[in-house]
Specification:
This protein is mostly helical. Helices cover 78% and strands 0% of the residues. The protein is built from six helices and no strands. Helix 1 packs across helix 3 and helix 1 packs across helix 5.
Length: 129
Amino acid sequence: MENDITTRTDLERLVSLFYEAIKSNDEISFFFTETIMVNWDLHETKMVDFWENALFFEGNYSGNPIDAHHHLHTMEPMSSSHYELWIKLFNQVVFQNFQGENANKIVQHAKAIAQILQDQDICYLMVAS
């Protein structure tokens, strides 16, 4: 049985494994490698801060994921299949490596975020049309 997510080290492991899955998936890796050419070290650290704040209320995260995502979407629109794949990969990485209350919480939080971002994209497309 895997342990739950209880520390920043657990989140660092989760984020690293998740982005390895992203990088190896041609359907969505291009958003990071071609569209925005992400600095992986900075991005992963920021995402660890984000999830640490979401789970443990540490307050280390600064940023606005909706604005950042909106900027990305204007460069390369994302479809519902991109969101579905993102959630599928995230869930797989979480549940292959962790079990418990925080593992369940982070999956639910990720699903809610994906829905919010997808809804924002739909609104953007309607306004832009």
